[in-house]
Specification:
Layout (H helix, E strand, L loop, with lengths): L4 E2 L10 H10 L11 H21 L6 E4 L2 H13 L4 E6 L4 H4 L9 E4 L9 H10 L6 E5 L13 H10 L3 E5 L11 H4 L3 E5 L10 E5 L14 H4 L7 H17 L3 H18 L4 E2 L10 E5 L5 H10 L2 E2 L15 H5 L4 H4 L2 E5 L6 H25 L1
Parallel strand pairs: 1-11, 3-4, 3-5, 5-6, 6-7
Antiparallel strand pairs: 2-8, 7-8, 9-10, 10-12
Length: 383
């Protein structure tokens, strides 16, 4: 059997061999990291080494890294913090991950959705206007704006948005899960107050993430009952997962040098798709994008059919977000961008990563071309 082409890195990246080795070694650390004996101190030291590596990936201080069970929990903590700490109104872009767009602990009338352009980018003038006109007296704005979209790869103007938010006396949170390891991140340069990361998007283990605080920022924990993570996230730490996250973060920083090559592979893939289907739509093409992400629709062909057909041909991709319990649904991201429903339902996402080669691109294009040809022939015969 031929080797499969895995092109779904935005859903999860393959675990790196170095990470697997580190996780396996960490499983032998028998101590509780809160214990003061030798075994406990060894586990604590492993966590703190990982904390420094994760902080280094985003230009933060190690003490400002809060380990969580993943990006979703980190987002939930970020959104819960201001909700219990005073009078706030939240502003969330229409293309956010569902863990943000749900509004966290904000009441339905306590948050507003920021519109985006046809390329999936927030309009800064609209943001400034909403912060001026739509924040009730006595409230402060809390804005959540993802650094890079998980479906289209479109980048947001985080630094410029942060300046507007801070001028209005607010707080900015950014979900940087998809940007980590693909573009450089400096939390201070971005101006973000809170920043979310997830280990498994960078080749780390699933089930571990982090919320990063800018210097001077603070949060209120979702849960109480323990002193772990400086009393900001109680519960015994996932030592092995955190150790793996640290190794993945260090390796992800090295990946940045290879991203130009990944972008070239993405461009070759999109050019090949257009040769096969000249009417294909590439979403957010006019915007600055992640180097690894391509969101494509071929009008008239359902995304679910393409995903299943490519899977049978040995190619792994997604239809929009992979965080919907295996269901293929119309993308809220593309709908927020103004895409026609029938085009949005046709959209597939191809995302590349550190193991992607030109052979994978050729396998995809061969399978995609055969599938499109077969489906369009069936359409003609049925007409």
């Amino acid at each position: 059997m031929n080797q499969r082409a895995y092109l779904d890195y935005n859903a999860t990246a393959p675990i790196r061999p170095e990470v697997r080795e580190a996780v396996q070694a960490a499983l032998d650390l028998v101590g509780n990291p809160s214990s003061v004996h030798a075994e406990g101190r060894a586990a604590r030291a492993a966590i703190e080494e990982a904390r420094a590596s994760v902080a280094g990936l985003v230009g933060a201080h190690a003490e400002d890294v809060i380990f969580t069970s993943g990006g979703t929990e980190a987002n939930a903590i970020a959104l819960a913090a201001p909700a219990v700490g005073g009078n706030w109104k939240a502003f969330l872009s229409g293309i956010e991950h569902p863990s943000v767009l749900s509004g966290g602990r904000f009441e339905p009338d306590g948050f507003a959705v920021l519109p985006v352009t046809g390329d999936g980018v927030v309009d800064l003038e609209i943001l400034a206007g909403m912060l001026e006109d739509d924040v009730p007296d006595g409230c402060r704005p809390f804005v959540s704006l993802m650094a890079a979209n998980n479906e289209t790869g479109a980048l947001q103007p985080i630094a410029e948005a942060a300046a507007i938010v801070h001028e209005a006396g607010g707080v900015l949170h950014t979900d940087a899960v998809q940007m980590a390891g693909r573009l450089p991140i400096d939390i201070r340069g971005l101006g973000a107050d809170l920043l979310t990361l997830s280990a498994h998007k960078t080749g780390g283990p699933k089930g571990v993430g982090a919320l990063i605080l800018a210097e001077g920022a603070d949060i209120r924990p979702l849960m109480t009952g323990g002193g772990q993570e400086s009393r900001r996230r109680p519960g015994t730490e996932n030592v092995a997962g955190i150790v793996g996250f640290g190794v993945a973060a260090k390796l992800a920083s090295y990946d940045l040098a290879s991203m130009q090559g990944v972008a070239q592979l993405r461009d070759e893939l999109e050019e090949g798709v257009r040769r096969i289907a000249p009417d294909a739509v590439v979403f957010a093409q006019a915007a600055a994008r992640l180097p690894n992400t391509s969101c494509i629709a071929v009008p008239g062909l359902k995304a679910e059919t393409l995903v299943i057909g490519l899977d049978l041909a040995g190619v792994s991709i997604s239809a929009g977000s992979a965080c919907s319990s295996g269901k293929v649904e119309t993308s809220h991201v593309l709908m927020a961008m103004g895409a026609q429903p029938e085009v949005a339902r046709a959209a597939i996402r191809v995302s590349l990563g550190f193991e992607t080669s030109i052979d994978d691109i050729q396998v995809f294009l061969g399978a995609f071309g055969d599938l499109v040809k077969r489906l369009r022939k069936s359409e003609r015969e049925a007409a």
